[in-house]
Specification:
The protein is an alpha+beta fold. Helix 2 links the parallel strand 1 and strand 2. Helix 3 runs parallel beside helix 5 and helix 19 packs across helix 21. The chain is built from 24 helices and 16 strands. It is globular and about 85 Å long. 55% of the residues lie in helices and 10% in strands.
Length: 575
C-alpha cells in the first residue's frame, strides 16, 4: 500500500526495529498482543526488557479501565486521541492522519511512563510492576510455542458430546412436550416463568446461578437437564478451537492468549489468541487434560503448590489450630472431613474414630490407624455424589476462609460439583459454624483484614505487592478482600516460577539450557513443563526449588511454601 516503504525499505525498518528491541527497554501498552504479532508475522524476537504501561497501571489500580486512551488521560492529562486514526487510508491526507495518530501514541507513552513510575514509588509498587514486566517474554514464548495435542481423540470427544446433546434434546422434548433449546434464553425463560410459573428474577433470568437456585427450590429434572446440556455444549465449544500452526512448520498446536492483567489477584486469565487460534488452556476439566501431549521424545512434568492458599491463610492468622495442621503434616481438608463426618468413617472402619477427633492436633498423626483413616477420607472424593465427603470438606475450608455465608456456600458447592452435590441450608450452616469453632483464628484474621481495608483502602500480598480498592468498602467487598492476599501470593509464586524457569532455560550457563526443556502452561497454582525422560528428576528438582520460596507473615514469622512434582505422557496422566 502507499504508506509502506517498499520491500527493501520495509525490511530495513524491521531490521532496525529488531535491533532496537534487542538493545533497549521497550515501552509498550498491552505488550503481549503487539509483540506476538511482531514475532509471529515478522519474525522479530521479543525484547527482554519491556515496560508495559497497561500492566503497570493494572498493578496500581486493578479495578480501573486499562485502555491507553484512559491511562494517558488519567496519568498524563493528555486529551483523548484514540478516535483520530484512519486505519484504511485511501488518500494522502488520510495517510498523514494515520501517521499523526501513531506519533501521538508514541508521545503519549513517553509521557505516561514517568507518571506511572512516580505513582508506583508512592505506592511502593515498583517490585510488583517489575515482576509482571519480567513475565512478558516467558509467557509470549509459551504462546508462540503452543502445546501438542491428540487431534483424533479431541475430534472423537466432540463427536461424542454432539451425540450426548442430541439425546438430551430428545429427553427434554419428552419432558416438556415440545422442542426446547437449552441455549436459548428466550425459550428457557418462557418455559420457567410462563410455563412453570416460577418467580421471575429482576436480572440474569436464565444463567447458571439462577437455574441452580431454582433447582434448590423446585425438584424439576428439566432444570438439571438444561444445565447438563449447557455444560456439555460449553465443553465442546472449548474443544472446537482453530489450531495454531507453529511458525516455520506444519505442526498443529493448541495455544492461548495469556492476559497478565486479567484478574484483580494478579493470577492470569487466558482466552483464544487474537480471536483466531486456540482457547483458554487454564480451566480445562481434568478429564480432558489427557488430550494434551508432550512433544516427541518428551514427557510432562507438573509442579504444584501444595495446599498453598490455606498455608498462607494459616500464617495470616494468629498461631492456632489451623496452623498446627500444617506444622504437623495434616491436610486441612482431611481434618475437617474427619470432624464433620466422624460417623461415616467409624461405620466404614468398624470402629470409633473419637480418639482422632478429641486428640490435640499435634498428636493426631501419631495415633495408631491414622494412615488408614487418612487414605479412607481422601478416597471418598471418588465415591458417589452424595458421599463425596472429602470434596465437601474441601469446599467448606475454602468457603470459610473467604467468608462465605451458608446460602452462597450451598450454591457454590452445587456449582463446583456441576450440580451433583446438594446439601440443605441447615447443613451448610452447621458445616461453616463447625469450621469456625475448630479454627476461631480465621474470623480474627477477617476482622483484621476489614480494619486494614477501611483504614488504608489498600491490601498487600506477602511479596508486598499492593492492591488498591477503589470501590465502596461494604460487606459485599469482604470476600474479595479476604481472598486477595492468599490468591495473589500463590498466583505471584506461580508467575515468578514460570518466569525464572524460562530465564534459566535461556541462560547458556545454566544446565537447563542444554536439556531441551520447555515451560508450556500456567495453571494458577502449578506450572507444566516438558523435557526428555532422562532429565525429569533434575527439571522437577529445579522447578520445586524456585517454587518453594521463603515467606514472611505480617507478624514476622518465617515459613516456606511447599510443592510437589508429578510426571506423565499426557497432561491428564501426570502422577
Amino acid at each position: 500500500r502507499a504508506y509502506y516503504y517498499g520491500g527493501l525499505g520495509t525490511a530495513r525498518i524491521l531490521r532496525a526495529l529488531a535491533v532496537a528491541f534487542r538493545d533497549n527497554t521497550v515501552v509498550i501498552h498491552n505488550a503481549l498482543f503487539d509483540l506476538f504479532v511482531m514475532a509471529y508475522k515478522y519474525g522479530i524476537p521479543a525484547p527482554r526488557k519491556v515496560y508495559d504501561t497497561m500492566l503497570a497501571h493494572h498493578r496500581l489500580c486493578p479495578e480501573v479501565e486499562k485502555s491507553l486512551g484512559h491511562c494517558i488521560s488519567l496519568y498524563a492529562d493528555r486529551e483523548y486521541h484514540k478516535n483520530d486514526g484512519v486505519f484504511e487510508p485511501r488518500n494522502q491526507q488520510q495517510i498523514l492522519s494515520l501517521y499523526h495518530y501513531n506519533a501521538k501514541d508514541v508521545i503519549s507513552l513517553a509521557l505516561l511512563k514517568p507518571k506511572l513510575t512516580i505513582h508506583a514509588k508512592q505506592l511502593y509498587a515498583e517490585d510488583s510492576i517489575q515482576q509482571v514486566n519480567d513475565s512478558i517474554a516467558p509467557y509470549l514464548t509459551a504462546m508462540l510455542q503452543g502445546i501438542n495435542y491428540n487431534k483424533q481423540d479431541l475430534d472423537d470427544r466432540v463427536a461424542y458430546n454432539n451425540r450426548y446433546c442430541a439425546q438430551i434434546s430428545r429427553i427434554l422434548k419428552l419432558l416438556v412436550g415440545y422442542e426446547l433449546n437449552p441455549n436459548s434464553p428466550k425459550q428457557v425463560s418462557a418455559y420457567l416463568y410462563e410455563g412453570m410459573g416460577y418467580k421471575k428474577p429482576v436480572k440474569d433470568m436464565t444463567n447458571e446461578k439462577t437455574l441452580l437456585q431454582l433447582r434448590l427450590k423446585h425438584p424439576n429434572p428439566v432444570l438439571t437437564i438444561i444445565l447438563k446440556y449447557r455444560g456439555i455444549a460449553k465443553q465442546s465449544g472449548q474443544l472446537k478451537f482453530p489450531p495454531y500452526v507453529l511458525r516455520g512448520t506444519n505442526k498443529e498446536r493448541i495455544t492461548t492468549a495469556y492476559n497478565l492483567a486479567g484478574t484483580t489477584t494478579f493470577r492470569l486469565a487466558s482466552k483464544r489468541l487474537l480471536g483466531r487460534w486456540g482457547t483458554n488452556v487454564q480451566n480445562f476439566p481434568k478429564d480432558l487434560r489427557k488430550l494434551f501431549l508432550p512433544d516427541e521424545n518428551k514427557v510432562f512434568v507438573q509442579v504444584d503448590q501444595s495446599g498453598a492458599e490455606a498455608l498462607v491463610v494459616s500464617y495470616l492468622c494468629t498461631k492456632g489450630n489451623f496452623r498446627s495442621l500444617f506444622l504437623h503434616g495434616i491436610k486441612s481438608h482431611v481434618y475437617v472431613a474427619l470432624r464433620l463426618f466422624a460417623d461415616v468413617w467409624a461405620a466404614e472402619l468398624g470402629r470409633s474414630v473419637d480418639n482422632f477427633c478429641t486428640a490435640p492436633i499435634a498428636e493426631v498423626a501419631t495415633l495408631r490407624g491414622w494412615s488408614e483413616l487418612d487414605k479412607l477420607i481422601k478416597s471418598s472424593d471418588n465415591w458417589s455424589a452424595e458421599k463425596r465427603y472429602y470434596f465437601i470438606a474441601k469446599m467448606v475450608c475454602h468457603a470459610s476462609n473467604y467468608g462465605m455465608k451458608p446460602p452462597t456456600f450451598r450454591l457454590n458447592l452445587l456449582q463446583k460439583s456441576e450440580g451433583k452435590v446438594s446439601i440443605s441450608q441447615a447443613e451448610a450452616k452447621v458445616f461453616l459454624n463447625t469450621y469456625h469453632d475448630l479454627f476461631p483464628e480465621i474470623r480474627g484474621w477477617h476482622r483484621e483484614t476489614v480494619d486494614t481495608l477501611r483504614r488504608d483502602g489498600v491490601l498487600r500480598n506477602l511479596f508486598g505487592y499492593p492492591r488498591v480498592f477503589t470501590s465502596i468498602i461494604d460487606e459485599s467487598m469482604h470476600k474479595e478482600a479476604f481472598a486477595f492476599v492468599p490468591q495473589s501470593t500463590v498466583g505471584t509464586i506461580t508467575n515468578i516460577t514460570f518466569t525464572k524457569m524460562q530465564q534459566k532455560i535461556e541462560n547458556q550457563k545454566d544446565p537447563l539450557s542444554s536439556m531441551d526443556v520447555d515451560i508450556v502452561q500456567n495453571n494458577h497454582d502449578s506450572v507444566l513443563l516438558q523435557c526428555p525422560p532422562e532429565h525429569v528428576d533434575y527439571v522437577a528438582k529445579e522447578t520445586m526449588a524456585v517454587m518453594n520460596c521463603d515467606m514472611i507473615s505480617p507478624r514476622g514469622e518465617k515459613f516456606a511454601m511447599k510443592s510437589e512434582a508429578c510426571i506423565g505422557d499426557t497432561w491428564g496422566g501426570v502422577v
